[in-house]
């Protein structure tokens, strides 16, 4: 059994302060981190084109990138899933409805999840943009209110990274500048102009919400055969994801306390009764840590082991 907690490893700037609160707020997780050997993997989103949690998802799904292809390219077909259009053997590109913030010295992408886009908003924006694809080399199919599949001309393969990997970072390194991608940039500019005064964005402005002003293109891998599902399937506990992405570490700590009490403590009880130990995977912005929770007859046996230096990997800089 696998248990995965995305965004369980906080940003380095707050990790030390949060660590001091773990004995009170997350005693079960702390006991495991103190006792279990940890395998630490650094995953650079700039190099891989995806976050550590997305890397785990892709490995779990059996994706293997082609030579020279970043791991994150697999998130195109993974996000498109069974709803993907086109030839089964062609690369799958996905575009996420997004907000690009322009700063004094760089532009940055907001995590699309933080836009809280309603289904009606997504459909209206798609309907406004769809006619712009007519007569171009591109194709658009709506996969969900905030995600489209984009058909690119043969041979067009921009460098890409998922929006979660890019969010909060300067986007210039991922922004396509070569001449071959000029038609895509032109189309994107036309979409942005149509959306600028769109009723959806006007209503969002009246509510104090950020406008949808762009599409973030990523993916590029071909679909692959899905492996046999794991039995039992991994248990993914996503309670920390939202607060971490928003940088709300007070809410993150509250969510961790609930997760520790409602999910990890019962699991510890089963371990104490002789149940099988899971593999516990924690992810952060640039880290993936797997704890070796070897089965024990009683949970208290964990505390008799020498304490592992968990702080050494908990506070690693991102």
Describe the structure in your own words:
This protein is of the alpha+beta class and 318 residues long. The protein has two domains: 2-47 and 229-314, no CATH class; 63-219, no CATH class. The chain is 36% helix and 16% strand. The chain has 13 helices and eleven strands. The protein has helices at residues 12-19, 22-25, 27-35, 45-48, 52-60, 75-80, 119-129, 163-166, 182-196, 199-206, 241-246, 249-272, 310-314, and strands spanning 2-5, 38-42, 93-98, 100-102, 107-109, 139-144, 147-151, 214-219, 235-236, 279-283, 287-292. Strands 2-11-10-1-9 form a five-stranded mixed β-sheet, covered by helices on one side. The protein has a four-stranded antiparallel β-sheet with strand order 6-7-3-8. A two-stranded antiparallel ribbon has the order 4-5. Strand 10 and strand 11 form a beta hairpin. The longest helix has 24 residues, at 249-272. The radius of gyration is 22 Å and the shape is globular. Residues 295-300 have low confidence and may be disordered.
Number of helices: 13
How many domains? The number is 2
SSE pattern:
EHHHEHHHEEEHEEHHHEEHHEEH
Q: Indicate the mean pLDDT.
A: 90
Q: Structural class, please? A: alpha+beta
| Most strands sheet | 5 strands, mixed
């Amino acid at each position: 059994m696998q248990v995965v907690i995305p965004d369980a490893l906080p940003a380095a700037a707050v990790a030390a302060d949060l660590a001091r609160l773990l004995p009170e707020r997350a005693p079960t997780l702390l006991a495991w981190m103190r006792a279990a050997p940890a395998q630490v993997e650094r995953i650079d989103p700039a190099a891989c084109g995806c976050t550590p949690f997305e890397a785990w998802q892709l490995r779990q799904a059996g994706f293997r990138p082609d030579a020279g292809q970043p791991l994150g390219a697999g998130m195109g077909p993974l996000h498109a899933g069974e709803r993907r259009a086109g030839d089964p053997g062609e690369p799958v590109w996905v575009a996420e409805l997004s907000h690009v913030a322009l700063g004094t010295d760089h532009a940055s992408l907001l995590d699309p999840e933080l836009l809280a886009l309603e289904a009606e908003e997504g459909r209206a924006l798609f309907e406004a943009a769809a006619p712009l694809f007519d007569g171009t080399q591109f194709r658009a199919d709506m996969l969900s209110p905030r995600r489209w599949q984009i058909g690119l001309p043969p041979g067009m393969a921009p460098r890409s990274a998922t929006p979660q990997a890019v969010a909060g970072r300067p986007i210039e390194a991922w922004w396509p500048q070569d001449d071959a991608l000029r038609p895509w940039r032109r189309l994107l500019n036309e979409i942005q102009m149509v959306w600028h005064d769109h009723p959806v964005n006007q209503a969002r402005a009246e509510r104090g919400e950020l406008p949808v002003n762009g599409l973030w293109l990523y993916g590029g891998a071909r679909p692959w055969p899905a492996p046999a599902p794991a039995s039992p399937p991994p248990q993914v506990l996503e309670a920390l994801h939202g607060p971490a992405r928003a940088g709300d570490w007070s809410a993150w700590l509250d969510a961790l306390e609930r997760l520790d009490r409602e999910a990890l403590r019962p699991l510890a009880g089963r371990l104490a009764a002789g149940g099988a130990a899971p593999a516990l995977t924690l992810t952060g912005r640039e880290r993936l840590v797997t704890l070796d929770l070897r089965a024990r007859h009683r949970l208290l046996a964990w505390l008799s082991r020498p304490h592992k230096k968990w702080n050494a990997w908990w506070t690693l800089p991102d």
